[in-house]
Amino acid sequence: MSGNIIEIRHLRKAFGDHVIFSDLSLTVKKGETVVIIGPSGCGKSTLLRCLNGLEPIQGGTIYLNGKPLEYGRKSLVKIRQKIGMVFQNYDLFPNMTVLQNILLSPVKVQKRNRREAKEEAEQLLEKVGLREKADAYPDALSGGQKQRTAIVRSLIMHPDILLLDEITAALDPEMVHEVLDVVMELSRNGTAMLIVTHEMAFAEAAADRVIFLDGGRILEEGEPQAFFHSPQTERARRFLSAFTYSES
Amino acid sequence: MEGYEVIFAGSNFIRLLSGLWVTVRISLISIGFSLIFGFIVGIAMTGRSPLIKALCRVYLEIVRMIPQLVWLFIMYFGVTRMTGLNLSGEAASVIVFTIWGAAETADLVRSAFQSVPVHQFESGRALGLSQFQLYFFVILPQAVKNLFPNIINLATRMIKTTALISLIGVTEVLKVGKQVIDANRYDAPDAALWVYGAIFLMYFAVCFPLSLLSRRLTERKE
User: Fold this and answer.
1) Structural domains of chain A, with CATH
2) Rounded CA gap, A9 and B216, in Å?
3) What is the pLDDT of residues A55-78, one digit of tens each?
4) Domain boundaries, position B160
5) Does A73 contact B129 at a Cβ distance shorter than 8 Å?
6) How far is Cα B81 from Cα B92, in angstroms, rounded to an integer?
7) Which residue, A192, A191, A164, is CA-closest to A87?
8) Which CATH number do you get for residue B203?
């Protein structure tokens, strides 16, 4: 068990009669960057949402650092400090400045000293190139700046793992890069991450392991190099070929 | 005596003002209670329980369907007789206006909360905020911004509607006006226009600042 940040065993998730996962197992090791790819509606986002309790699960167990997740209110609050999540939609709170957004959770949830948290927030903002935006409101930020802020807002909690749910999907192409740079840096520094993305080049560069999900099942799993250049399944081949344009 | 002289004759103007005070007092107390109960019901309406939601909906619809005057009669003549309770006209008014105001406030609160995007709730939860923290720091400030102008509009509607309570014997500004006119029926037969004109200005003086405030808040929002 040791070394596994997340271990999912026999996960079952359904919305009413609509089964998303009937039996899904997956682990993320310490310091590992795992990228999940797959067609829309294959359950990628749902999987991330199950991990931090935004979606109730119908069966199986999710272990965080070897301990099974509990879904009571109190334990969820604890879990969510350990599992950071950034969403596709710009989800900063519009009524707060960048700094206030970042400090809300460490100060109110983790009860950390405000001054100490503020120092760390400023360091993190510096790292993602947003030091001078600390007092700006989200309205005044570009999409890329918002997402970098959202990443900082998760990082300051010192999570054991970061879940990134298509965080560049709503961005203008020019801004995708600045956000992925930040994620790449995190990956290099050994932050455990579970990433859902449609950016294949980024997936190949950042991933330690790629998981191809379709129809609620893991169809293929492996090293990025191997997966992207010689996928084993016909389904994965077809999926990947959609990302490279060639005249037929 | 000329009609306009009636307004300031004797203690007439003071009486009108004290009538206005009754209007304002009843309005303020009712609005205060309406906000308290309206927020509670409104938040309940955004909750998960379908039963509570349905009950709130029924409450709101019933209150809206029946005219305020009928509610006043039911409360003042009906409920008091039935229960043997001795309610003053003013108390009955406050109860009726609170029942009405709370229902309207609740609906405004509900729609203000529902206008906050779902992902605001989710990202708040994902940060580990408790339900209370989520509402207090994130959702409420966003909802209130949309809510404020609407609440003020409701308040002016309530102030104007208090004119009805003269019909259950509360001596508010309109009732005082009528007494003044009646007392001067022979000396100044055209006093009605002047006295009601003065009352018109009094309502205006109370409601217009609120209307201005509401406009200011709406503009700042945009």
Assistant:
1) 4-241 (3.40.50.300)
2) 57
3) 888 989 999 988 888 888 888 888
4) 3-221
5) no
6) 13
7) A164
8) 1.10.3720.10
Distance CA A213, CA A42 (A): 6
β-pairing verdict for A193-196 and A18-29: unpaired
φ, ψ of residue A145 in degrees (nearest 5): -65, -40
Counting beta carbons within 10 angstroms of the beta carbon of residue A116, is it exposed (0 to 12), middle (13 to 18) or buried (19 or more)? exposed
Closest Cα in chain B, distance from residue A132 (Å) = 24
* B146 pLDDT above the threshold of 50: yes
**ipTM above 0.90?**
no
| Cα of A42 to nearest chain B Cα, Å | 21
Average pLDDT over residues B32-58: 90
All residues at 6 or more sequence positions from B86 whose CB lies less than 8 Å from its CB, including other chains: B80
Q: Report H helices in B66-139.
A: 68-73, 80-83, 89-114, 118-126, 131-133
What residues have CB less than 8 Å from A156, skipping those under 6 apart?
A: A102, A103, A105, A106, A117, A120, A121, A124
Q: What total number of domains does chain B contain?
A: 1
Question: Of the candidates A80, A92, A110, which has its C-beta nearest B126's C-beta?
Answer: A80
